[in-house]
Amino acid sequence: MRMQPPALARSVFEPSPEERSDETLIDRLRTDSTTRVLRVRGDRARMRGERLVWESPADAVDIADAAEWAFLGRAADGSARLIAAEGKPVDSDDEDDWASLRLSGGDLVDEDAGAFVTAVALGRWFADFRFCPRCGSPARLRSAGWSRVCTGCGREQFPRTDPAVIVAVSDARNERLLLGQNAAWAVDNRFSTFAGFVEAGESLETAIRREVAEEAGVVVDDLVYRGSQAWPYPRSLMLGFRAVAIDASRARPDGEEIVAVRWFDRQEIRASLDGAGPVMLPGSASIARRLIVDWCGDEA
Question: Which domain holds residue 256?
Fold first, then answer.
């Protein structure tokens, strides 16, 4: 059975990469009245109701020189979509108008969800990679915001994506799901699936087995890929899997990053998904929640 696409893997834009080589593209599109602009500050964008606020270039003239710009692509009607990443935090007076991707991304329509995750990913790359990693000279944006070129040595760099695995672990009978509690979540009684970055030289399979053994104490097998989505915290591509614990009785937390592990049956998971269960589960924007829902709907 196919898993429903993760919440942030629903982009419906045509990325139109062939247009990025036009060095005049951003300037031209900012004079086109049909273009729409999405402002981002950190991981936030302006929202009205349950939709992102897309502005005309004229509405965004106040940040024309202060923001860094990128070409997102073209909508179904052919109009261009731009990102304007502002290098400042959201003012406390404006917080109600600005929504976080982490908290709101899962509730958006496909067009907005895909745009929001791309905008945050690019905006964070703009902020973190302003200088050349080889010689330290400033690096200017080019390719309509999709690369930087060093003003000193000429080295070109591209938005960085770090692969990370995330896995829903079931017992051998597929009757229970193993979840863990991060040390930072203890106050909220939140549990989630297990995840970690892929280390140098590792395959995805090796990374999964290492992370689950380190965090939860169990050896897993029968790995099955279920889907992926970008997660720009800070710059990850989350690759989702399911796996089976060979010996469920060996589950235990590492005591540092993971302070508790627990087996849950489907009744407990369903109740928790509805907000009436024994624990809190990940938010709707995360692939962790999608993996949990996926397991919960797959009867043994």
Answer: 162-296
